[in-house]
């Protein structure tokens, strides 16, 4: 079991060694190999009686981003021309920082700072990527690493299925969740209700923190597959690793049983077909949709009736999870209407959950708005919309690795829309760090294009 903390520590030290050797792209080593096993590594360390290491391990991810950002600022040779998304990001950060400084709400300064980090650190990640020179990243290599991670996750999933046991039972997840977040074990399996459906079906998480993060990780992998194997002429040329990764995402998404991620998975494929203008894929999707409905109807009614109940209750909002979402949304909306400027940092989200005093939740936008007001949620939405629009507009114009990043990011952001409406999405470290760092790199790419007023037909840089 100690292999996971070893990988976590190793990925950190390899990354920081490369960064200090002026190879800043080394940060991807930790983002890709360290963050997926973040919670698992901390749980195992605690279980092995090494809990004193946890505060140090928790700092690794923020420390690497801050060092990378600092080095990017130090090496900056020209003035950055801000784009609208930069103003959105800085305005959001400024608002939340003010809420952290001033005694707004019922929480003390320390709790407000924890909530500030949870709700705003993604801006620092974005800025680190924004100042990162795209020419200094070999994106194809790191995209292949992401595929290796999802394949490894699916292999561990097979172990979970064969043993009919959650891997988190072995890692001490329940004790970790109690010690760090004050959450008692719940559900039928001694973990949390997230690890099962209302009908009792197990939802697996492999080595990720929970099934919802696992489901979101499959979306990251699917987006990377599309970006990596789509050529400049929009032809999709996949190698054996890519085929294995596609199968791994399909296998993973169905056993994670994340409804939001499952819906997003198919939406991403459709958006991919639209973006690449692939009529064959579009026709196949339309035909597959009809065939899929027939197949799933047979599968649900005849082969696996329990899964039918799960989906039916989801659509009709009659299962406990869906009802819980609605109650949390309504509670949050009431708080926002009554206090449009927000109740203060920590009043919703992770800090509030740890104190069993959360208001609203189950929706990233509501969590932001409850804490720091409607404006902060609007700024967050504006960043999301801006990235989707720009990715869509620039995709046909870019080539090489710039095109790979653009397409992957477009599909990620589209795929994240539904999950962020049903969870505290930015709490998934792996998903948040990868997507926002790539967001910053992409904005840097288009900023350079706009500044030079040139859109080359051929890209000669390393991809």
Give the structure's gist in a few sentences.
By secondary structure, the chain is an all-alpha fold. It is about 70% helix and about 0% strand. The protein folds into three domains: about 1-75; about 85-135 and about 315-463, no CATH class; about 140-305, no CATH class.
The tally of structural domains comes to: 3
Shape: globular
Strand content: under 5%
Work out the helicity level.
Answer: 55-70%
Number of helices: 20
Mean pLDDT across all amino acids = 89
Separation, N- and C-terminal Cα atoms = 36 Å
- Secondary-structure-based class equals mainly alpha
Low-pLDDT sequence parts: 456-462
Q: What is the radius of gyration?
A: 22 Å
In total, the number of strands is 0
**Sheet with the most strands?**
none
Order of helices and strands: HHHHHHHHHHHHHHHHHHHH
Fold and architecture overview:
By secondary structure, the chain is an all-alpha fold. It has three domains: 1-77; 83-137 and 317-463, no CATH class; 139-304, no CATH class. The chain has 20 helices and no strands.
Characteristics:
single chain, 463 residues, mainly alpha, 3 domains, 20 helices, globular
């Amino acid at each position: 079991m100690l292999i996971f903390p070893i990988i976590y520590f190793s990925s950190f030290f390899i990354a920081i060694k490369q960064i200090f050797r002026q190879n800043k792209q080394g940060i991807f080593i930790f983002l890709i190999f360290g963050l997926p096993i973040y919670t698992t590594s901390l749980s195992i360390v605690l279980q092995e009686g090494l809990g004193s290491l946890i505060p140090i391990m928790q700092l690794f991810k923020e420390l690497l981003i801050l060092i990378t950002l600092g080095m990017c600022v130090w090496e900056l040779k020209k003035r950055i021309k801000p784009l609208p998304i930069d103003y959105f990001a800085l305005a959001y950060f400024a608002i939340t920082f003010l809420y952290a400084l001033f005694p707004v709400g019922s929480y003390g300064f320390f709790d407000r700072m924890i909530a500030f980090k949870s709700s705003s650190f993604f801006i620092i990640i974005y800025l680190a990527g924004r100042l990162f020179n795209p020419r200094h990243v070999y994106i194809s290599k790191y995209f292949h690493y992401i595929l290796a991670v999802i394949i490894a996750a699916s292999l561990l999933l097979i172990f979970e299925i064969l043993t009919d046991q959650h891997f988190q039972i072995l890692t001490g997840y329940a004790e970790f969740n109690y010690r760090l977040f004050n959450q008692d074990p719940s559900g039928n399996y001694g973990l949390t209700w997230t690890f099962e459906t209302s009908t009792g079906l197990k939802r697996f998480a492999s080595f990720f923190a929970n099934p919802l993060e696992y489901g979101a990780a499959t979306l990251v992998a699917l987006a990377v597959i599309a970006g990596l194997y789509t050529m400049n002429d929009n032809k999709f040329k996949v190698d054996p690793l890519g085929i294995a990764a596609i199968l791994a995402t399909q296998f993973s998404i169905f056993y994670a049983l994340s409804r939001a991620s499952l819906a997003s998975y198919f939406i991403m494929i459709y958006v991919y077909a639209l973006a690449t203008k692939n009529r064959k894929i579009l026709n196949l999707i339309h035909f597959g949709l009809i065939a899929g409905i027939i197949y799933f109807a047979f599968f649900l009614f005849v082969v696996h009736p329990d899964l039918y109940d799960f989906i039916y209750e989801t659509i009709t909002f009659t299962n406990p999870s869906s009802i819980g979402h609605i109650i949390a949304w309504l509670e949050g909306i009431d708080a926002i209407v009554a206090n449009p400027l927000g109740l203060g940092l920590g009043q919703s989200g992770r800090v509030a959950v740890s104190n069993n005093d959360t208001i609203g939740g189950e929706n990233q936008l509501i969590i932001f708005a409850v804490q720091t007001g409607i404006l902060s949620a609007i700024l967050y939405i504006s960043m999301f919309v801006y990235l989707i629009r720009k990715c869509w507009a620039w995709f046909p114009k870019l080539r090489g690795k710039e095109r790979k990043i653009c397409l992957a990011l477009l599909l990620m952001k589209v795929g994240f829309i539904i999950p962020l409406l049903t969870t505290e999405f930015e709490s998934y470290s792996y998903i948040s760090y990868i997507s926002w760092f790539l967001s910053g790199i992409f904005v840097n790419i288009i900023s350079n294009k706009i500044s030079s007023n040139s859109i080359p037909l051929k890209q000669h840089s390393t991809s």
